[in-house]
Amino acid sequence: MTAQSNQPPAGAEYLKAPGRSIAEDDSRTAELVAEVIARVRAEGDAAVRDYSIRFDKADLDSFEVTAAQREAALDALDPQTRADTEFAIANVRRFAEAQLGSLTEIEVEVLPGVHLGHRNIPLERVGCYVPGGRYPLLSAPIMTIVPAKVAGVGEVIACLPPNAHEAMVAGCHLAGADRIFRIGGAQAIAAMALGTETVPRVDKIVGPGNAFVNEAKRQVFGPVGIDQLAGPSEIFILADETGDAEMIATDLLAQAEHDVRTRVGLITTHRPLAEAVLAEVERQLGDLSTAETAGAAWRDFGEIALVSDEAAMIAYSDIIAAEHLQVHTLDPKAMAKKLSHYGSLFIGELSSVVYSDKCSGTNHTLPTMAAGRYTGGLWVGSYLKTVTHQWLTPEGVAAVAPPAARQAATERLEGHRRAAQLRLDRMQG
């Protein structure tokens, strides 16, 4: 993880520096989340209900959304919104199916009689956290639930805040959630990780959320799997003299309106473009309806860095490892092949992050805070476990037993040596 700095990288110049670091003290968050998890472990549904009243001002008779309530949410969905949601679901499903098709199970004979292999086994039960957010983010359930269903997960549980828009319930239903619960925040993560009287324990929890959700995922990890620890959203754009200032500014602000802590930036080799983008961002903020959020993100975490050449642009980009990385250069496909660290790549100025955010098919649940240096985003493989197996013939035992026994003896592990030798002795006896 790299901390954002107010100093530009070596050889670069800030035309717009970030106002402050994205890092913040979260000790109080960690303490509160630990309390929530402990109470849910001890009290189950009673603790969940108490925290729902306390944090979400919601006292529900039942946490689970009934079949009738699902249908009501679906009926209330605007027809065009439903059609657009189904369009997005279809694209995400097609891409997930293609990804699944690329995964093969293997079995190879590495030595005569020594057969090794692996299988891709779907998880039994997955919990998908669906954030409420400032607006009804209709794409959120699609990105977590659809790939799980394509992977063959036995049961997909969705949790969303009690005050989430009814359209989000419809989205969970259309995406294929087997059960939907109106539980939000850290208590939802705790309920899915530990299980309660009404919420089943899951094997893995996926999906983004606020700082409390993120911290809860961190604390429950181990007995239950998680997809990743998500920080505030990020977008960086790499551009040369061919960049379009209006388009770049528009894409930066589109991401900035997610949250006041969104990190947005331009890395360019062309000073006139940098200056034009700086002016264009300020101009667009003047009539952007979400300027209160986007403007705060731009002020505090926005940056424009001027670098000397393409190599410096690539080097700085790879240090940041941005969640979303757009390439606006003369030959964007050639540039794309030189980039190694990012969550998802958008090649050419026609490929906006917003398309992936909503409906084009790639997943928008992506690594942030430089985690793109070691992992990719959520995908169909996130819902599979690749497990190995082996089987040996007598010829295989004859090949591997002697070196295994000798190595065990060298390590002074007598039990290991005996286990290695026993089968060979019986074959030779």
From TrEMBL:
GO aspect biological process, one term: L-histidine biosynthetic process
Name one cellular component (GO) term. cytosol
Q: Which UniProt keywords apply?
A: Metal-binding, NAD, Oxidoreductase, Zinc
Q: Name one Pfam family in it.
A: Histidinol_dh
Q: GO molecular function terms here? A: histidinol dehydrogenase activity; metal ion binding; NAD binding
Q: At which positions is Zn(2+) bound? A: 255, 258, 357, 416
Which residues are catalytic?
A: 323 (proton acceptor), 324 (proton acceptor)
Q: Where does NAD(+) bind?
A: 129, 187, 210
**Keyword Oxidoreductase attached:** yes
Q: Where is the segment annotated Disordered?
A: 1-21
Question: What name does the UniProt record give this protein?
Answer: Histidinol dehydrogenase homolog
Q: List the taxonomic lineage.
A: Bacteria, Pseudomonadati, Pseudomonadota, Alphaproteobacteria, Rhodobacterales
